[in-house]
Specification:
The protein is an alpha+beta fold and about 375 residues long. The protein is built from 13 helices and 14 strands. It has three domains: about 5-170, no CATH class; about 180-215, no CATH class; about 220-245 and about 285-380, no CATH class. This is Type VI secretion system baseplate subunit TssG.
Length: about 375
């Protein structure tokens, strides 16, 4: 499962008083249906940054602090400090501190003074001399002048890193039209027109996350399995060539030549072993697949019953991937150990063919895989 790291932030940026105000969480990129799971067993990225800043690059550290403060401008998220002295810096980030709700970072790649300073050497010597007198006024003055240029330098690092641009737009709630990476991903999937996105039936962020699979043709069962396994965090199997009965129109049926008053009607579809068919429907083995999901817990199984939001979004996601040439069915599989006892007066009421099974003596020999929901039925129910 591919995972991304996110910080739970308030809706409005506020001053951060302590590291405990920021909780590191783990979430799957298609976050429309999954809760964030806290990771208390290991320190957060922010804690690690404050403790061991030398392990972070300049770009990663500044972006993490931008997430922590909710600011899209690096210059407003961090106060930049130049290192005092002329020794060669061992890392890009030398120190990160939290003072009065404001992050301060001592950075080495750029500055007015210090080992990478753009000013002549005597200015750095003056700063060192003032520090020996326990006076930080001169260093603070140079840092104030360098704040804007260093912030622009950090912004340039974000601008030319597509994953950073998209992430900043996401946590800053930037309109989609200002996120060029997202626009390109949607175009690769065939959904560049903004009018198409509201018709998807699921979060467009899911489409952007799986853009590599949606942009690849021809569509394959293996790619669909990868998408659904990641999106649902459950085992998924794709049964191909499940087959379906297709109704035949009258003009598509087999017919022999017939003499009519105005002329002879031509024969149609009457070659045995080629196109002749008897009856009102024909078996098509390649136009239907069945998606087996599970085994599931009882709660997971109930979330995939008709009328539930998760199943509606799942059907919309699969339809967007397959198109309308192939139909499909959803088969949620309930784990044998999770099959509930049959209670006619229970709440909620049991539904035949969905979530009710006859009791048996002893443990069940197999998982409950009886429920199969056709996509056509589910789509009609949704509309």
């Amino acid at each position: 499962m591919t995972a991304v790291l996110a910080l739970s932030l308030p809706d409005q940026p506020a001053a951060v008083e302590s590291v405990q105000d920021l909780t590191l969480t783990q979430s799957d990129a298609p976050s429309e249906r999954r809760a964030l799971y806290a990771l208390p067993h290991r320190p957060s990225l922010l804690t690690r940054l404050l403790r061991d800043p030398q392990h972070f690059s300049f770009d990663a550290a500044i972006f993490l602090l931008m997430q922590a403060t909710g600011e899209s401008d690096p210059g407003r998220a961090v106060r930049f400090r130049a290192p005092v002295g002329l020794a060669f810096p061992a890392s890009e980030i030398l120190a990160v501190q939290l003072r009065q709700g404001q992050f301060e970072a001592t950075v080495s790649p750029i500055g007015l003074t210090g080992p990478s300073g753009v000013l002549p050497g005597p200015y750095s010597d003056m700063v060192i001399a003032e520090q020996r007198k326990r006076s930080a006024a001169l260093a603070a003055f140079f840092d104030l002048l360098a704040q804007r240029p260093v912030g622009l330098f950090a912004q340039a690092g974000i601008k030319y890193r597509p994953h950073r641009v998209s992430a900043v737009a996401a946590f800053n709630k930037t309109p989609e039209k200002r996120d060029p990476v997202r626009t390109v991903l949607m175009a690769l999937c065939g959904y560049a027109a903004p009018e198409l996105l509201p018709r998807l039936g699921f979060d467009p962020a899911t489409l952007a996350y799986f853009a590599g699979h949606f942009a690849t043709h021809p569509r394959s069962a293996e790619r669909l399995k990868v998408i659904l396994t990641d999106w649902l965090s459950q085992p998924v199997e794709i049964e191909q060539f499940a087959g379906i009965w297709l109704p035949m129109r009258k003009e598509e049926g087999s017919a022999l030549p017939v003499a009519l008053p105005n002329g002879e009607a031509p024969a149609s579809f009457n070659q045995l072993g080629v196109d002749a068919a008897a009856g009102a429907r024909v078996w098509d083995v390649q136009s239907r697949i069945v998606i087996h999901i599970g085994p599931l817990s009882l709660a997971g199984f109930q979330a995939l019953l008709p009328g539930r939001q998760l199943l509606t979004r799942l059907v919309a996601l699969v339809r967007a991937f397959l198109g309308f040439e192939t139909t499909f069915a959803i088969n949620p599989i309930l784990s044998r150990s999770a099959v509930p006892p049959l209670e006619l007066r229970g709440a909620p009421a049991v539904r035949l063919g969905w979530d009710s099974w006859l009791p048996c003596h002893g443990p069940r020999a197999a998982d409950a895989s009886d429920a199969v929901f056709e996509a056509d039925f589910l789509e009609q129910q949704a509309h």
